[in-house]
Amino acid sequence: MSSTCSLVINGKAIRAARGDTLVEAALAGKIVIPHDCGTGQCDTCRVRIYAGEVDACGTRQGSTVLACQARVSGDAVIEFDAVPAVVKRKGTVTGLVALSPEIVEVTVALGKGLGHRPGQYVACSFAGFPARDYSPTLRSDGSGELNELIFHIRRIPDGIVSSELGRRIRVGHEVRVRGPFGSAFHRLGSGRLVLIGAGTGWAPIWSIARAARFREPDREMVVIAGARDPHNLHMGEALDWLSRSGVGQVVATASGGEPKPGQLAGRPTAHLPHLRESDVVHVAGSPALVAAIRLLAASVNATCYADPFVASARKRSLRHKLFDLLFARRPSADPEVPVPAAPRSAA
């Protein structure tokens, strides 16, 4: 048996060593398959196998595998979607708006635009803080400038980054951005689009939904927005626009608390339509939600692009907390990030 195989990647034939990952084999042939984490977590390097076979190493979904994990085992023909090149950009925070008691909309103006596909993500570093991954989106009214990146960030009380929004991270704060990454982006197609976003996972889903309505207005679409707390279903204006634009099924649902008028109760999976093999499913949210939707999509062999959102395990250190106590100004209510009061409940 030969120690090398023939790989055809996006139409270019190369020789590849058996046992190499597809990313390694491509790089040896001077082809860069988009990738990021290298551990099989981010899904950036998912490629399609059109002919032949590879050792999927447990990453197969339909006809796709993760190129950073799958290994060369024989001759094969593979293809990946062309995406904007990964670049680095500098910018500044120009806006901090509380969308709900937990979620903040952060606007970053870049010195030079950063091209990305709707649904991709970037690595963002606020000066003095570790990098975090965020998905660029649009405001609820669909606005956004070419040199702007708009993020939805959930405030976590002990989060190193998110807890400082409106405190140490304010308008004018310097930012470095690297990207784009991710394969869960909008693609033109004919199958029904089923879009599910929960919590801050609404950010990439809104970006995909808005793009799809303009790029392929006749394509059938279902949109489901979810949250645990009904107060975090902040996307009403966006959902109204989708309904007016012709989307047949638009759902806002909360799994906890008392839903507001126009909202449903339950998890997003409770309102999912019966999936078809021809469907193209996008899901962004908690790992549990993503796993459930992936399983349902796999049961009918539907295409599923998943973007699990996981909070960083790192917490604010004792040093950060002592700094707050000794030096930080702690206003009772930050004027740049007004937190909306929870609506009164009917007595």
UniProtKB/TrEMBL annotation:
Residue span(s) of domain 2Fe-2S ferredoxin-type: 3-84
Membrane spanning residue stretches: none
Molecular function per GO: iron-sulfur cluster binding; oxidoreductase activity
CDD domains: fer2, FNR_N-term_Iron_sulfur_binding
Domain FAD-binding FR-type: from-to ranges: 86-187
SUPFAM superfamilies linked: 2Fe-2S ferredoxin-like (SSF54292), Ferredoxin reductase-like, C-terminal NADP-linked domain (SSF52343), Riboflavin synthase domain-like (SSF63380)
Highest taxon above the source species: Bacteria
Gene3D superfamilies given in the database record: 3.10.20.30, Nucleotide-binding domain of ferredoxin-NADP reductase (FNR) module, Translation factors
Pfam families linked: FAD_binding_6 (PF00970), Fer2 (PF00111), NAD_binding_1 (PF00175)
Name of protein: Ferredoxin
Species in which this protein is naturally found: Methylobacterium nodulans (strain LMG 21967 / CNCM I-2342 / ORS 2060)
